[in-house]
Amino acid sequence: MKFSEEISRINLLILNGQLDQAESDLQKLTPLSIAEKRMQAHFHGIVFFNRGDVVVAKERMQWALHTFGENVNLLRDLIVCQYHLQDMMGFRGNLSRLEHLLVEKQAELSSRSLLECELMVGKFLEEEARLMPALA
Fold it and tell me: What is the pTM of this model?
């Protein structure tokens, strides 16, 4: 099975609450590219987040971001962790970065990534009482 198919299957395990199985399957993956390594690390963070260990999730996602480079989905999920932990300086800085990346990379992003990230940005802009950009 291809890496992308494995990640999709693992994502379904996470969504269905089968976190132990998802973590086990993540450990068995053999990512080849930088993007695949980033996805594996990102999904490890998602597992921790869904277990309620937001601190470890944030650490994993920050590590993935610094080690493997920027990705809008990873940045979006890191922002969620920062918000939950009330790390408002990190949250606001990364929210601003994500806003700029979405504009800058719009043509390169899948419609799903763009939609999911724009919805999350809008939600957080509304939380920050920045209604005009949230409605744009």
Answer: 0.90
